[in-house]
Amino acid sequence: MDAREGRVARSEALFREVNERIADISLRHGIGNGLEFLCECGRRDCLEALSLTREEYKRVRAHSDRFIVALEHDFPELDEVVERHDGYFVVRKAGEAEEIADASDPSA
Q1: What is the CA radius of gyration of the chain?
Q2: 57, 26 Cβ separation under 8 angstroms
Q3: What pLDDT, on the 0 to 100 scale, is given for residue 104?
Q4: CA dist 53 → 5, 26, 36, 73, 107 (Å)
Q5: Domain ranges for the chain
């Protein structure tokens, strides 16, 4: 894995952790089901909000190698788009990026 791939993988893991907290806090405080999550694409300048229900996000999070990203924010050389939705993609990591995703999974 080159330095760029490692940076992207670590950034994605960080935004996944932020989104995990959004889901948990919203549940504890009784906030409605329609939530805004941050794009987990790993781009340095991306702060795009993605609308998902808590259940949709938890379904993605059931797999430690999957991330939500804004449309066209996937990295074709690093990601496999496994689901396409209105407003976001679900991407799957492979190889060393998958290992980083697994190791940094806050729900594991």
Answers
A1: 13
A2: no
A3: 67
A4: 29, 11, 8, 20, 18
A5: 3-103
**Per-residue pLDDT, 108:** 56
Quote the tokens at residue 77. Answer: 């050389």
pLDDT of 5 reads 77
The pTM of the full predicted model, rounded to 2 decimals, is 0.81
**pLDDT under 70 in the chain at which residues?**
1, 97-100, 102, 104-108
Distances (CA, A) of 106 to 4, 43, 61, 81: 23, 21, 10, 22
Interacting residues of 17 by C-beta distance below 8 A, sequence separation 6+ = 104, 106
Cβ atoms of residues 46 and 68 within 8 Å: no
**pLDDT for position 28:** 80
One DSSP character per residue, 66-103 reads: EEEEETT---TTTEEEEEEETTEEEEEE-HHHHHHHHH
